[in-house]
Design goal:
This protein folds into 2 domains: about 160 residues; about 140 residues, Histidine kinase-like ATPase, C-terminal domain (Heat Shock Protein 90, 2-Layer Sandwich), CATH 3.30.565.10. The chain starts with about 20 loop residues before the first helix and ends in a 14-residue tail after the last strand. The chain is about 60% helix and about 10% strand. Helix 5 packs parallel to helix 7. The protein has about 400 residues and is of the alpha+beta class. A hairpin with a 3-residue loop joins strand 4 and strand 5.
């Protein structure tokens, strides 16, 4: 079955390059012609024994014409809609109802198959490819019921044929669903790769021009007083902000349930907050990533209030767990201070940080020494996280 291009003047259209459904439609066309060939061979062998040989020739000619037309029509994606699908079903129903009468009860009892044998599965495959398992099952039930109703006697072979059509509708529909998901993932991967390349190109351009100028201004004016010194300080802050911006990965939403943790933590980057993360996406369920990011935000809020304002965030992605460390170079936490804060009703660390991570089955470790800063380490095990972002029960 040829795939035609759109000539811009109402000509034929074709599936997008790389479409995973296009081979399925070609396979349906091949199946239809193969089934028609099989029916033709049977008709040539048994036509003289049919109750109505002339009518059998007419039905065979109609089947041939529809096979050619449907193969041509389904090649155009814009035609794969309800009018063609319903017409395909109607033509096949007409053949199913006419075929037993053409052959005759005596020949059917003798084991001669009707003209609709094998060929009648074409619409089931077309409906399954166009709409998945549900459409495939509906078409199989309609055609199977019509085939059984058209026969005077229902035998094991006819029931087997109806069951095979039903299974074909389910199987092909499931394959199509997987193909659609795979195609969406492939498109997302292509878009992500293109965005990453463009980001890297811009980062190189910024590094070779803007960052070097800002760094030069900061170095030359660092020892000056007055407005020149203030300008140098601002240049240094903007240099740090730009470096953080081009180093932070672009938001990557893999699907509606998963997200790249780096894209959420990147929003906390600033001239006084540095973020270091793996080069590859840190994939977590959206709910989990949101809770981890909120806990990191609470830790950075403490850095801004009590840790001198300068903070570092490190993200580590292992097979078993994801670890996020938040460190500052402030005065540290005096021994017993966290316990006093809880006693005073100040539950920021307990609720905002430990509470969130504990609900995910993770742990929080706080290390601090007076005068040496504070480090908050958040660990979330992947084995305890379910797709909806909740913690799995412990055995």
């Amino acid at each position: 079955m040829a795939q035609w291009s759109d000539d811009g003047r109402g000509g034929r259209r074709r599936d997008p390059p790389g479409s995973l459904q296009a081979p399925l439609w070609r396979a349906i066309a091949v199946y239809r012609f193969a089934a028609l060939t099989y029916v033709t061979v049977l008709a040539v062998r048994n036509l003289s024994d049919y109750a109505f040989p002339v009518a059998g020739g007419v039905v065979l000619l109609a089947m041939t014409s529809w096979t050619v037309y449907s193969g041509y029509a389904y090649a155009d994606p814009s035609w794969r809609r309800w009018p063609l699908l319903l017409a395909d079903l109607a033509v096949t129903l007409a053949v199913i109802l006419a075929a037993p009468r053409v052959v005759g009860p005596k020949m059917l009892d003798a084991g001669v198959p009707p003209l609709s044998v094998a060929w009648l599965a074409g619409p089931v495959l077309a409906w399954a490819v166009s709409g998945g398992r549900r459409r495939g099952v509906v078409a199989a039930l309609i055609l199977g019921a019509a085939d059984l109703a058209a026969r005077e006697r229902v035998g094991q072979s006819s029931l087997t044929g109806a069951a095979l059509m039903l299974l074909a509708g389910i199987a092909v529909g499931h394959v199509v669903r997987l193909a659609v998901i795979a195609e969406e993932r492939l498109q997302q991967a292509v878009e992500l790769e293109a965005a990453t390349r463009e980001r890297e190109r811009l980062a190189r351009g910024i590094h070779d021009s803007v960052l070097q100028v800002l760094a030069l201004v900061q170095r030359r004016g660092a020892h000056l007083d007055g407005e020149a010194g203030e300008l140098a300080r601002l240049a240094g802050e903007q240099e740090a902000a730009l470096r953080s911006l081009i180093a932070t990965a672009a938001p990557v939403e893999l699907d509606r349930k998963e997200i790249d943790l780096r894209s959420l933590l990147g929003g906390y980057a600033s001239p006084v907050v540095s973020i270091a993360a793996p080069a590859t996406p840190v994939v977590l369920p959206a709910g989990v990533a949101g809770e981890v990011a909120a806990a990191v935000g609470a830790a950075l809020d403490n850095v801004a209030r009590h840790g001198g304002g300068r903070g570092w965030v490190l993200v580590e992605d292992d097979v078993a767990e994801v670890t996020v460390s938040v460190r500052d170079d402030g005065p540290g936490i005096p021994p017993g201070r966290l316990g006093e804060a809880v006693g005073q009703g100040r539950l920021g660390v307990v609720q905002s940080i430990k509470g969130r991570i504990s609900e995910l089955g993770g742990t929080v470790r706080i290390s601090s020494m007076p005068g040496e800063g504070t480090e908050v380490e958040l660990r979330v095990p992947r084995s305890r996280v379910t797709p909806d972002g909740t913690a799995a029960p412990v055995d």
